[in-house]
């Protein structure tokens, strides 16, 4: 009897102990998440809105490469884009550019009335497309399961977070989540990127899908669509990037909508109409005003009978806000910057890029990706699906067409979150388990953490400027080294490309020196590459 009672008592105590263990583990996870956030550093100033002062590295001609492969209407996902037309950023990071001016989204939510709020949303939306690269570049295609997490800190102490994941391979779909709990802002989006060649010499990247933007304090939901990006002048003339297509921002509760059209400048005499956008503010079928301007500078609204136009957006009054990101050495193995770091570093090895090396790294990513079971086929069908790590399928209602559009939303239930919880995007992106293996290393503390933060630097994706400056300094350094001198210093004899390579990885090195944990890279057998089809 006593033994039975003891057994019963032990059985009853075990769940309590397990619950305590779970509570302790949860508290430790929260502490680790906050520590990770404290170790984040801002992107350097010279990278904001595009890398400034960079020069285009030499590369082969693209004309014959494209002529051999492209026919009008062809799907570019089956066409190899030359590596010198790739940007050393993943598409998941490119989509984060919509938050280059996050204060404009906060201002939109704080608008005095429904019209002010939807015009504020339009201003924020238009401000997210002006990122510039040296030459025309396209981001790398994210691999399935790739993630990106970042945040911005505002003057009022609140934080806006951005979390993204590549949730689907065929078709390629990127899911994104933006949240600011203090201001009651939440956005969920899914973009299916479809590319094609359009005669005579244009490559188009068509952004299909939609976004649900919610202002919880006002009970408003905005449905948003996306434009098409065009690379013009592929074979002759000046190669340039422009946006085109019709988009809309519509709110079912208020009946208001902003309709916008992005225009491509004509080939001859179109300098004044570059980056032109036109549109209208409407309530139902009633037009309340005309919208016109340049989406990379200033956009105005003219109401019927109004004495003067109203400013919708004026980018000269705003600066690009830096993203807060984990140093490269602390990121998880499936995060965008760390995953692509070897290839991006090779692309930034100025002044002379080894394009064959870049191609080999890119091909290895693709070859690894082919081994994923969810990419294999049996009689034309996928033999294994892929379970997204952070998002789940959903729909958003388009009040203009009265249809439900498929999107992806943050899987709050699986992640243990509610609508009122702040999302620690950097921790979720880094720590969420991936079935392919590869685990992030331990989080440094004390002096190791201080050393890591103090050595914060531009990641491998944005070291081109430093490399270019080193390259320009190399001839003078070589001349100085040639003069009689007691002993030339390392600064005068180090080759510029080596200096650039070293500049691209100080966080990793510092972490190793200070005992900070490195993320465990996936093994050679663990797939980590992009799809068999090459970058579109």
Automatic annotation (TrEMBL):
Q: Which GO terms describe its molecular function?
A: sterol binding
Alphabetical GO CC annotations of the entry are: cytosol; membrane
Instruction: Recite the lineage of the species.
Output: Eukaryota, Sar, Stramenopiles, Bigyra, Opalozoa
| Region feature (Disordered) | 480-536
* SUPFAM superfamilies xref list: Oxysterol-binding protein-like
What family is this? Belongs to the OSBP family.
Coiled-coil region(s) at which residues?
Answer: none
Q: Where is the composition biased (Low complexity)?
A: 480-504, 512-527
The name on file for this protein is Oxysterol-binding protein
- Tell me the PROSITE patterns matching this sequence: OSBP
* Recorded superkingdom: Eukaryota
């Amino acid at each position: 009897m006593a033994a039975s009672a003891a057994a019963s008592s032990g059985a009853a105590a075990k769940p309590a102990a397990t619950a305590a263990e779970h509570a302790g583990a949860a508290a430790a996870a929260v502490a680790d998440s906050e520590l990770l956030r404290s170790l984040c550093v801002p992107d350097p100033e010279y990278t904001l809105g595009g890398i400034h002062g960079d020069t285009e590295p030499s590369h082969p001609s693209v004309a014959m490469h494209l002529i051999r492969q492209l026919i009008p209407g062809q799907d570019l996902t089956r066409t190899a884009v030359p590596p010198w037309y790739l940007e050393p950023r993943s598409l998941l990071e490119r989509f984060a550019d919509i938050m280059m001016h996050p204060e404009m989204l906060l201002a939109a939510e704080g608008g005095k009335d429904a019209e002010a709020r939807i015009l504020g949303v339009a201003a924020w939306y238009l401000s997210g497309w002006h990122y510039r690269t040296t030459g025309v570049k396209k981001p790398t295609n994210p691999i399935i399961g790739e993630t990106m997490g970042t945040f911005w800190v505002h003057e009022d102490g609140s934080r806006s977070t951005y979390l993204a994941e590549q949730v689907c391979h065929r078709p390629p779909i990127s899911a994104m989540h933006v949240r600011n709990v203090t201001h009651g802002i939440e956005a969920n989006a899914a973009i299916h990127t479809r590319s094609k060649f359009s005669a005579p010499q244009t490559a188009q990247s068509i952004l299909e899908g939609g976004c649900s933007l919610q202002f919880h304090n006002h009970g408003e939901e905005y449905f948003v669509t996306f434009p098409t990006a065009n690379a013009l002048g592929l074979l002759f003339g000046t190669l340039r990037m422009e946006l085109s297509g019709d988009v809309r921002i519509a709110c079912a509760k208020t009946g208001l909508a902003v309709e916008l059209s992005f225009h491509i400048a004509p080939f001859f005499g179109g300098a004044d109409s570059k980056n032109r956008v036109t549109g209208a503010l409407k309530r139902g079928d009633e037009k309340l005003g005309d919208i016109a301007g340049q989406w990379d500078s200033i956009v105005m609204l003219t109401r019927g009978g109004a004495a003067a136009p109203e400013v919708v957006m004026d980018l000269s009054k705003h600066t690009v806000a830096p993203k807060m990101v984990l140093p490269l050495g602390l990121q998880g193995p499936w995060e965008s910057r760390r995953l692509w770091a070897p290839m991006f570093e090779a692309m930034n090895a100025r002044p002379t890029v080894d394009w064959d090396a870049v191609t080999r790294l890119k091909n290895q990513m693709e070859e690894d990706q082919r081994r994923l079971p969810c990419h294999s086929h049996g009689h034309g069908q996928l033999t294994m699906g892929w379970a997204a790590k952070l998002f789940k399928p959903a729909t958003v209602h388009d009040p203009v067409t009265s249809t439900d559009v498929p999107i992806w939303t943050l899987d709050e239930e699986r992640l243990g979150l509610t609508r009122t919880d702040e999302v620690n995007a950097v921790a979720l992106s880094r720590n969420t388990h991936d079935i392919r293996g590869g685990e992030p290393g331990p989080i440094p503390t004390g002096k190791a953490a201080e050393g890591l933060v103090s050595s914060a630097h531009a990641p491998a994706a944005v070291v081109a400027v430093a490399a270019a400056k080193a390259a320009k300094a190399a001839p003078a350094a070589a001349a100085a080294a040639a003069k009689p001198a007691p002993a030339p210093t390392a600064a005068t004899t180090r080759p510029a490309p080596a200096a650039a390579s070293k500049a691209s990885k100080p966080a990793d090195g510092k972490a190793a020196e200070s005992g900070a944990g490195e993320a465990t890279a996936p093994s050679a057998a663990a797939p980590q590459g992009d799809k068999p089809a090459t970058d579109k």
